[in-house]
Specification:
By secondary structure, the chain is α+β, with helices and mostly antiparallel strands. The chain has eight helices and 28 strands.
Length: 473
């Protein structure tokens, strides 16, 4: 073994010299074996093979390049529509501390070296340290307001969940290139920046019909009441009146189970945020339980074939509440369906159900209920605040005044009645009033109630809204 090491050239790598030093003790132990003439060729072949393994191990341990921060994406390849928008849930895995997404774009061609190593695009494209796209083949970039990438954590691993929504314009460009004889697949590239520099992760988009074996994703949702003629912007009902049937027209990709529920936001309930209006599958798994819930009216569970469009009937109109004055909101809540095609690997043996993903918030269907007082005058409809506003919410009073009102009187008093805490006269065109801060401070955590009274000429009371509970935080 020592003569072999002596024959190494001075320019040989430090790895080879280190391997020889590691093998010298083993050679001394095996010296009796070397004295057998018949064993010498076998010994030299085995020793050479073992030396190669040691050299490779030492090189991998000591001089291997630094590990990439973000290691990949799941799924790494998706089927998309060639004639319309497509939405897919993606998970970028193993982000480094301080690493964040910077931009995302679509391109039609990768660098020749990457295509030569994976001509059929059956394997993931390795994470790149430079832009993998051929210059001049970028189809478009993801606008920042439409970027729904969110950090996520799975089994102690830092991930990034992304909702890739391919616009119809990008799909059209890719289809035109395919007609011209170029590659029928195109690529979604997301760039990350962090302590280790820029990293580019590639998702292969294969053009298909967007039907079977494609995860269920919503591309457009419209909700309205089924009425003759043009539907009203806000349906106004009398107290106790049954509203017409509601329906939702849904355009989608793929096929799968559409599961969810219809909910109603009652007057005085906290307003839904944008995260509350997103479908459950759009959020990272650990954030889905944080979505608030309101009064459940009806549930639905429907299998959607790969036809791309469905009309979902709304809840039974008799179940919609109309017993109190105020503004109501009918919400379409889409739950995540655990279809086989709609699963994303989060790492650590966890899978996320992504059936029913959407790149936008669900629309809201509004209707209002206004009481009618004696004499036919319409009572004001109370809008805000909620019965128990959260910290940081607006404490402004707002309502909808009836036509023909000369003045509006706002009344706030203890829940059990008694001396008024606040009374204010407001012109009918304003329909809002901000209470003085010292009044709010003096009545925090005290059960109150408030209402709005419509006044006519001369100060005569025309109609009054119902009392609504209020507790200032």
């Amino acid at each position: 073994m020592r003569p072999v090491c002596k024959t190494l050239r001075p320019r040989a790598s430090l790895t080879l010299h280190a391997a020889c030093l590691l093998l010298l003790p083993l050679a001394r132990v095996a010296r009796p074996v070397r004295q057998v003439p018949l064993m010498r060729p076998v010994w030299r072949a085995w020793l050479a093979r073992f030396a190669r393994l040691v050299v490779a191990g030492v090189a991998a341990a000591l001089w291997a390049p630094a590990a990439l921060a973000v290691t990949g994406v799941n799924p790494f390849g998706v089927n998309v529509r060639s004639s319309g928008p497509t939405t897919v849930f993606l998970t970028f895995q193993n982000l480094d501390a301080g690493e964040a997404p910077v931009e995302a774009f679509w391109c039609g061609e990768l660098q020749p070296a990457l295509m030569a190593a994976n001509p059929q695009l059956q394997f993931p494209v390795p994470v790149q340290a430079a832009n993998p796209c051929v210059p001049g083949t970028v189809y478009g970039r993801l606008p920042h307001p439409l970027d729904r990438a969110r950090p996520s954590t799975a089994a102690g691993t830092a991930n990034l969940t992304d909702i890739m929504t391919i616009p119809a314009s990008v799909a059209r460009r890719a289809f035109q290139d395919a007609q011209a004889g170029l590659n029928s697949a195109f690529f979604y590239v997301r760039r990350f920046a962090g302590p280790g520099g820029d990293r580019f992760v590639v998702v292969t988009c294969r053009m298909a019909g967007g039907g079977a074996r494609v995860p269920l994703a919503l591309t457009e949702v419209r909700i309205g009441f089924v009425v003759e003629g043009a539907p009203p912007t806000v349906l106004v009902l009398a107290r106790g009146q049954t509203p017409p049937r509601a329906a939702a027209r849904i355009l989608y990709n793929g096929s799968g189970t559409l599961r969810g529920r219809w909910e109603v936001v009652l007057p005085g309930d906290p307003e839904p945020t944008e995260d509350d209006l997103l479908t459950e599958a759009t959020l990272p798994p650990e954030r889905r339980a944080a979505q608030r819930r309101w009064t459940v009216v009806e549930r639905f569970d429907r299998l959607l074939p790969p036809t791309g469009e469905v009309t979902l009937p709304g809840p039974d109109p008799a179940r919609l509440p109309t017993d109190a004055d105020g503004a109501y909101k009918l919400l379409l809540r889409i739950e995540a369906s655990d279809d086989r095609e709609g699963r994303s690997d989060l790492g650590g043996g966890r899978l996320a159900a992504t059936g029913g993903v959407a790149g936008f918030a669900m629309p809201v269907l509004r209707y209002a209920v206004g009481g009618v007082a004696v004499g036919g005058a319409s009572a004001p409809m109370l809008l805000a605040p909620a019965a128990r506003p959260a910290a940081g919410d607006s404490l402004e009073f707002s309502w909808v005044a009836a036509p023909g009102t000369a003045m509006v009187r706002l009344e706030v008093q203890p829940a059990a009645g008694g001396t008024e805490v606040l009374s204010a006269l407001v012109k009918p065109g304003l329909a809002r009033y901000t209470p003085p801060p010292w009044v709010v401070q003096a009545n925090r955590d005290r059960p109150l109630r408030w209402r709005v009274v419509a006044l006519g000429e001369g100060g005569a009371e025309l109609a009054a809204s119902d009392w609504r509970a209020l507790t200032w935080p």
